[in-house]
């Protein structure tokens, strides 16, 4: 081969190599913002306040996340949900913060929240209007809105699915993904198409989290059924992309203390986003004890990011388990039934060698049990309650 032939051959090989690299990259991860290496933690306005929001209460919430110590535990996102913008865009087509409730604008709010060491999230919709129909959605304005959010310093976008044009989420959502990637500021992208088109199967290319369910409400049935629907997709969760069974209701008053402990335990072990949905400015001691449990939070934030699976169901009794770093296993023993019942977690169900001797830490009681367990561990549980352990083989 002459010099020229050789150069042509090398060029062709380079082109083919580059093409395959590009294809592999876009197939693997269109969204490459390096965010969400553990599930996001913070607060969102919707569950407690709905549309009843303004800049004063958002600032007070940011203050409260710091003064309660919750921000130190990882709750850093302050996420404004629906209803923050005027119904009409300005003459250039930009979103306009609602003058009556956010007179200082969102940029000023972002600056305030950042000055506290926190991050600010906003909300939009892959449709013509948001779900409240009180503000525009971003469909057809993706690049412009992503640029606006980036210019304000926004750190998180929840992207809802109301009032769309009937096209598939898998067509509408990636438009915003690309817009966010081009906007020049890393923004956590929370895909919220309610689980309609199995987003777990495509979400990793598109968002940092994807809702697997319809909206949660503050009842036991709503909460537990969302945990169930979300569990189906456990194998898809991984650092950078999480299944999202919706935000927390702990502290909003619709469930008992035991039920809220189940709620928080299942969200933690399922590697769900931990987004508080109560009034942070006015939390009871009981609510604080639940959401500030550092050992339960540590299970959620474990670097491996394995989502729990239901490894055994016997009637109303269930075992949920997830491998953790350090050869440990997190396990939830759950009684969903109406009466007190005893529940057993077996080593061969939860991925431990049946012969291994295990140290069990009860992470709601904050006690390492004196008994060493071989083969199984049993707890007797009241109705709608659970136990949560971190198990560590010691021999
Ligand atoms: C604070 O919470 C209590 C219930 O825990 C409620 O009765 C009270 O109205 C709340 N206060 C405000 C200002 O929301
Ligand atoms: C639990 O393990 C013990 C031995 O450590 C065994 O005697 C018992 O039958 C086991 N129980 C269950 C429910 O597997």
Lay out the secondary structure.
Elements: H1 3-28, E1 41-44, H2 46-49, H3 55-67, E2 77-79, H4 105-115, E3 119-125, H5 142-152, E4 156-160, H6 169-183, E5 188-191, H7 203-206, E6 209-211, H8 220-231, E7 242-244, H9 257-269, E8 274-276, H10 285-291, H11 294-300, E9 309-314, E10 317-323, E11 329-335, E12 341-346, H12 347-350, E13 357-362, E14 367-368, E15 373-374, E16 376-381, E17 385-393
Parallel strand pairs: 1-2, 1-8, 2-3, 3-4, 4-5, 5-6, 6-7
Antiparallel strand pairs: 9-10, 10-11, 11-17, 12-16, 13-14, 13-15, 13-17
Helix pairs in contact: 3-4, 5-6, 8-9, 9-10, 9-11
One 2-acetamido-2-deoxy-beta-D-glucopyranose binds at residues 279, 282, 284.
How would you describe what is shown here?
This protein is α/β, with parallel strands linked by helices and 395 residues long. It folds into two domains: 41-301, TIM Barrel (Alpha-Beta Barrel); 309-393, Immunoglobulin-like. Helices cover 32% and strands 21% of the residues. The protein is built from twelve helices and 17 strands. The strands form three sheets. The protein has an eight-stranded parallel sheet with strand order 7-6-5-4-3-2-1-8. Strands 9, 10, 11, 13, 14, 15 and 17 form a seven-stranded antiparallel sheet that branches. α8 (220-231) packs parallel to α9 and α9 (257-269) runs parallel beside α11. The chain is globular. Residues 21-28 have low confidence and may be disordered. The protein binds 2-acetamido-2-deoxy-beta-D-glucopyranose (NAG) (2 copies). This is Alpha-galactosidase. One of its GO terms (biological process) is carbohydrate metabolic process. Its EC number is 3.2.1.22. Belongs to the glycosyl hydrolase 27 family.
């Amino acid at each position: 081969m002459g010099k020229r032939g050789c150069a042509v051959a090398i060029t062709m090989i380079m082109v083919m190599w580059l093409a395959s690299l590009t294809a592999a990259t876009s197939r693997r991860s269109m969204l490459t913002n390096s965010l969400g290496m553990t599930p996001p933690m913070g607060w969102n306005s919707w569950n407690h306040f709905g549309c009843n929001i303004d800049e004063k209460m958002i600032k007070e919430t940011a203050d409260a996340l710091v003064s309660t110590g919750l921000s130190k535990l990882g709750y850093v996102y302050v996420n404004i949900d629906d209803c923050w913008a005027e119904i009409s865009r300005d003459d250039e087509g930009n979103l306009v913060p609602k003058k009556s409730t956010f007179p200082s604008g969102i940029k000023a709010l972002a600056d305030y929240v950042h000055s506290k060491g926190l991050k600010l999230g906003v909300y939009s919709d892959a449709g013509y209007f948001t779900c409240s129909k009180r503000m525009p959605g971003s469909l057809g304005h993706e690049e412009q809105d992503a640029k606006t959010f980036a210019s304000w310093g926004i750190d998180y976008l929840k992207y809802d699915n109301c009032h769309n044009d009937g096209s598939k989420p898998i067509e509408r959502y990636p438009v915003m993904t690309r817009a966010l990637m081009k906007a020049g500021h890393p923004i956590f992208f929370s895909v919220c198409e309610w689980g309609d088109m199995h987003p777990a199967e495509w979400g990793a290319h598109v968002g940092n989290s994807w809702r697997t369910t319809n909206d949660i409400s503050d009842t036991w049935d709503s909460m537990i059924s969302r945990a169930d629907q979300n569990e189906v997709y456990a194998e898809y969760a991984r650092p950078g992309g999480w299944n999202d069974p919706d935000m927390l209701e702990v502290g909003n008053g619709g469930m008992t203390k035991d039920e809220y402990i189940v709620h928080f335990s299942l969200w933690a072990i399922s590697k769900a986003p931990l987004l508080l949905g109560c009034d942070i400015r006015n939390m009871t001691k009981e609510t604080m004890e639940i959401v500030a449990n550092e050992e339960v939070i540590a299970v959620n934030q474990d670097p491996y990011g394995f989502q729990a699976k239901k490894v055994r169901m016997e009637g109303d009794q269930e075992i949920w388990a997830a491998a953790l770093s350090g050869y440990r296993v997190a396990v939830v023993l759950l009684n969903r039934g109406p009466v007190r019942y005893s529940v057993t977690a077996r080593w061969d169900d939860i991925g431990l060698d049946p012969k291994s001797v295990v140290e069990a830490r009860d992470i709601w009681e904050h006690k390492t049990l004196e008994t060493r367990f071989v083969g199984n561990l049993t707890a007797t549980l009241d109705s709608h309650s659970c136990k949560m352990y971190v198990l560590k083989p010691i021999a």
